[in-house]
User: What shape does this take?
Amino acid sequence: MGPTSAIVLYAVIWFMTFFIVLPLRLKTQGDVGTVVPGTHAGAPQEHHLKKKAIITTIIAILLWCIIAGIILSGVITVRDIDWFHRMAQPDL
Assistant: This one.
């Protein structure tokens, strides 16, 4: 895995984790009972984006280390997920 693919892998993991963490412990304006005129009742009252971004970064680093370790060790390769046998077999 090259540096570019490592960065892309981390970015994908970070954004996927962020979208999972984003709705956790979310208080909407409708839940609190103070809906600002012109906004939806489902709009967040308190979003805590900085805390969620820090949590996401920590989780993403751990997941990236695990996934990059698996890729670099060769435990799982692209040939392992070639279920339709479309890749040519290497000459031994």
